[in-house]
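Batch manifest, entry 17 of 40.
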Amino acid sequence: MTSFVRTGGVVVAAMAAALALTACGSDDDAGKGSGGGSTATPGGDQGSESTGVEAAALEGTWVGLTDGKNVTVSITAGKVALVADQSVCQGDVKDMGEMMLALKCTGGSDDRTMGSIESNDGKKLVVSWDGGAKDTLSKAESGKLPTDLPSLPSDLPSLPELPELPEVPPAS
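Output type: structure tokens
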């Protein structure tokens, strides 16, 4: 039970990110938001003149905690989905002289709309966001959750007992 509680939020966040990547796009979005950069595609020449980070190196699901809250970033074929705190964001990897994550978030959140890749060694990804947040994320192995996440504090309060629910008579 403890391991589920410790990783349950990550599972939910990873599932939401995967859903955002696979189910939320539409053909109506084509060409919108291309602004000043071009969408990066894996295997291209992106990033060769700046930090050396290429779009293909960002591929995968990255998870971690920032300020005690789960952050999950999934990147597939230049598309990005992010779940952090109460925000769900999606967008593109863009080459703007350096690799950037350009996102639009539900609910008007703007904490994580433009992210600069500070570093990526294949196991850890560090993203600094224009909104002030800085996420240090671990790459999740396919089909596995990372094991290096911090555990929950031991001084969490107990949950209250749930009241007994009255029995509901069957509908006639």
